[in-house]
Write a structure and sequence with these properties.
The chain contains 16 helices and five strands. The radius of gyration is 26 Å and the shape is elongated. A five-stranded mixed sheet has the order 1-5-3-4-2. Helix 6 crosses helix 7 and helix 13 runs antiparallel to helix 14. It is of the alpha/beta class. The protein has three domains: about 10-120, Alpha-Beta Complex (Conserved hypothetical protein from pyrococcus furiosus pfu- 392566-001, ParB domain), CATH 3.90.1530; about 130-230, no CATH class; about 250-330, no CATH class. Helix content is about 55%, strand content about 5%.
Length: about 325
């Protein structure tokens, strides 16, 4: 998974916190007074290797972010690896300062503090699916609380995508897991046994099928192909010569729509790359049409909450059965 980049517009408060211009808030704090945050779930690894880098540069040069707690102690918000690396060097007897530069930050509430812990970490490292899932849950909970308090920030999925620096499709997968997956599947994602991709495929199964798959096979060994086999498929019937070939069902179209929304970035890359090498006008026209469909699909996905609310409101006032059927069918795509 790629290294995350913070959105400057969203992370204004963090940029303010880490700015060296707030010199009055920077203190040199003894490493023994720095306490690991209980909310930090990111792995603190490769300390020995990181310690050598710190030793070579003559100590810690970048400010830690800390929160004052009790009796001169400070909770680490950002800088867990740096703190552990210095402790390791001191235990080894190296000549290095035990006092670390720390920007002291006060928080109005725990939500803001935990949000900073998440955002600082996803911006500075390659994270696992388990860490991304935990980050998603924390950020989603905080945003939901803000929304209930009247704060307006647009569509939830888009905001999560911006903060976590992942695609709308990836956020959609995690939302599907949260809403449809059984508890054991969610736990498996959180402890690293299942990838987000595999868990999202399992979430598409009904609860009985999910339970059976969990019972039949260790979750750490479940692959997407196992989920595909678990899907219930209607028995094939040989059509008579007089029977007409069935038309594609709305579910088939819906699956295509979901695929386009979840994979639009790579599809755009493929289509644009092919445009550079083909001179066939028919192929170019087809690609242009497909890209237009993908843009429309993305627009629908990004505004699905609003569209759903509009349709639900209209269903409450219309008595036209054809309109009700049309709305019901269209909502399958949201």
């Amino acid at each position: 998974m790629a290294k995350k980049k913070l959105d400057p517009a969203i992370m204004g408060s963090i940029k303010k916190a880490v700015s060296d211009s707030f010199a009055d808030n920077v203190k040199m704090i003894d490493v023994s007074n720095l306490i690991e945050s209980p909310e930090n779930f990111f792995e603190v690894s490769r300390i020995e290797e990181f310690a050598e880098t710190i030793l070579a540069q003559g100590g810690v040069k970048e400010n830690l972010i800390v929160k004052p707690i009790n009796d001169g102690e400070f909770e680490i918000i950002s800088g867990h690896r740096r703190t552990n690396a210095v402790r390791y060097l001191l235990e080894r007897g190296e000549s290095i300062s035990r006092f670390l530069p720390c920007l002291v930050q006060n928080y109005d509430d725990d939500d803001e503090k935990v949000l900073d812990i998440v955002l600082m970490n996803i911006s500075a490292r390659i994270i696992t699916d388990a860490q991304l899932w935990k980050s998603y849950k924390i950020v989603s909970d905080v945003l939901q609380k803000k929304k209930e308090l009247g704060e307006k920030f647009g569509q939830m999925q888009k905001k999560l995508s911006e903060i976590l620096s992942v695609s709308n499709g990836q956020v959609s997968k995690m939302q599907s897991i949260e809403k449809k997956a059984i508890g054991k599947v969610k736990e498996a994602v959180e402890n690293g046994e299942l990838s987000i991709n595999t868990a999202e495929k399992m979430a598409k199964l009904d609860e009985e099928e999910q339970e059976k798959l969990v019972k039949d096979k260790a979750l750490s060994k479940v692959k997407p192909k196992d989920v595909e086999r678990a899907e219930k498929k209607p028995p094939k019937q040989k059509p008579s010569e007089k029977e007409k070939k069935p038309t594609p069902s709305p579910v088939t179209a819906n699956n295509l729509y979901n695929f386009v929304v979840e994979n639009d970035d790579i599809m755009y890359e493929i289509l644009n790359a092919y445009l550079e090498i083909t001179e066939d006008q028919n192929e170019r026209n087809v690609i242009s049409g497909v890209k237009d469909f993908m843009r429309r699909a993305r627009n629908i996905s990004e505004h699905s909450d609003i569209l759903t609310a509009i349709f639900d409101t209209y269903l409450g006032v219309t008595s036209d059965e054809e309109e009700k059927i049309a709305i019901s069918e269209f909502k399958k795509y949201l």
